[in-house]
Amino acid sequence: MITQEREDYLKTIYKIELEESPVRTTAIAKALGVEPASVTGVIKRLAELDLLEHQPYKGVTLTPSGRKVALSVIRRHRLVELYLTQSLGYSWDEVHDEAERLEHAVSDKFIERIATILGHPASDPHGAPIPTKDGTIAPRVGHPLSTLVAGQSGMVERVSDDDPALLRYLSTLGIQPGSAVRVRDVAPYGGPIHVRIDDNEHDIGIEAASHVFIELTA
Amino acid sequence: MITQEREDYLKTIYKIELEESPVRTTAIAKALGVEPASVTGVIKRLAELDLLEHQPYKGVTLTPSGRKVALSVIRRHRLVELYLTQSLGYSWDEVHDEAERLEHAVSDKFIERIATILGHPASDPHGAPIPTKDGTIAPRVGHPLSTLVAGQSGMVERVSDDDPALLRYLSTLGIQPGSAVRVRDVAPYGGPIHVRIDDNEHDIGIEAASHVFIELTA
DNA sequence: ACCAGTCTTTAGTATGCTATAATGACGACA
DNA sequence: TGTCGTCATTATAGCATACTAAAGACTGGT
């Protein structure tokens, strides 16, 4: 009934819903790398299964049971990511692809076992919150570094996890969840952002900065 | 190109081929729990992909590339099984189902990493040999305990891994790979086999005994 | 209030795997 | 050697997912 593909659809819709609701067909298609026409077909089936509501030509919103599935998948993904770094020596740019497949294959037993081993952690290697077994998840409080202005400071809450090259780049800058950040200066017209990361200063492009989320302190 | 289902077909055919070759359609169907007609369709496709040869109405035999895929799947399955027992506290009756899904989801990186952690083991928790990365595998030397006669003795080489209830039963008898076994007596007409397992004596039915493989010493 | 451009859906096709029902090949045995 | 029962195959259909192409719905701007 719930196939891997459907799990992916629900997970993707959940994530987009955090930014915009209802979630439009094109947004799902782009996120999943398929054509919009394919999305229409799948969401019709997911609507029949009461996993989401579909307002034709408007978009979809997850139902409680759809959200439950999505959070379960996300929990599996993030716990696996953390386990791979903590116990199998993966670096943070290597875990996403592996977790993307494992999230559909691991059992509840597996997940609860690694959750215990990891001490029921609150977030994954990229700082994303891990939903609990019963489906609660910490709210996201960070702002994209690209939206900050000179003088603002805070802590890296999380970074996007799906671009390995970006993650390797961020590593060279010393950016990781928990890093102290202070914006020194922002060049105009999409120019680089001059920031202090812990004890070093760097110029970061808008594109990279948009994938780094800062929890403001002041 | 190689789907999960096709990996399962190749793995299954490989295992049956150890007993009988060519491998007949019905044998595959029974092992996979599908109808023979479905098998015919899939093996035709696998033959086109040069993963096996199909003699219509006779059966199939794996090609070298088909065998390579099969051994890769089996390597993944058995390493995962061992990792689950060694590092995640699974008991030997719990690992098969979990490995059955994970074998299709884990990457080479994952497998080689756990192989290193486990010290490049030779066999899984049930005593089955683990193929090496380059596709070599130790020959099977055990005989079904059900075929032994009074007086024969040896060591448990391996046991069937796919029936959790059987594995739990064997545990209560103290049967595991490496156990010393001596057949005391075999009752006629499919009667129980009276055996000494390490330091205890038990009566074991033919059915259970047929899933325990003994490496003879004398 | 309409029109143009964009987004969404429908229609039709393909692939992969499964099933049931019917046909065809094989082999054992009289 | 012919026949019967078993095994394998073909034929047809359904489900899930994807695609392209075409038609329909929506919306922003004049």
Quick rundown:
Chain A is of the alpha+beta class and 218 residues long. Chain A is 42% helix and 18% strand.
Structure description:
The structure is a homodimer of 218-residue chains. The first copy, chain A, is of the alpha+beta class. Chain A has eight helices and eight strands. Chain A has a six-stranded antiparallel sheet. In chain A, strands 1-2 form a two-stranded antiparallel sheet. In chain A, helix 1 crosses helix 2. Chain A binds a DNA duplex (30 and 30 nucleotides) through helix 3.
> What are the segments of chain A in which pLDDT stays under 50 over at least 5 consecutive residues?
none
Taking the alpha carbons of the first and last residues of chain A, their distance comes to 48 Å
The secondary-structure element order of chain A is HHHEEHHHEEHEEEHE
Biggest sheet of chain A, in brief?
Answer: 6 strands, antiparallel
Binned, the helix content of chain A reads 40-55%
The percent range for strand residues of chain A is 15-25%
**Would you tell me the overall average pLDDT of chain A?**
97
Helix/strand structural class of chain A: alpha+beta
Q: Assembly type of the shown chains?
A: homodimer
Describe the SSE topology:
The structure is a homodimer.
Chain A: H1 4-17, H2 25-32, H3 36-48, E1 52-55, E2 59-62, H4 64-88, H5 95-102, H6 108-117, E3 143-144, E4 153-159, H7 164-172, E5 180-186, E6 193-197, E7 200-204, H8 206-209, E8 212-216
Helix pairs in contact in A: 1-2, 1-4, 2-3, 4-5
Chain A binds a DNA duplex (30 and 30 nucleotides) through helix 3.
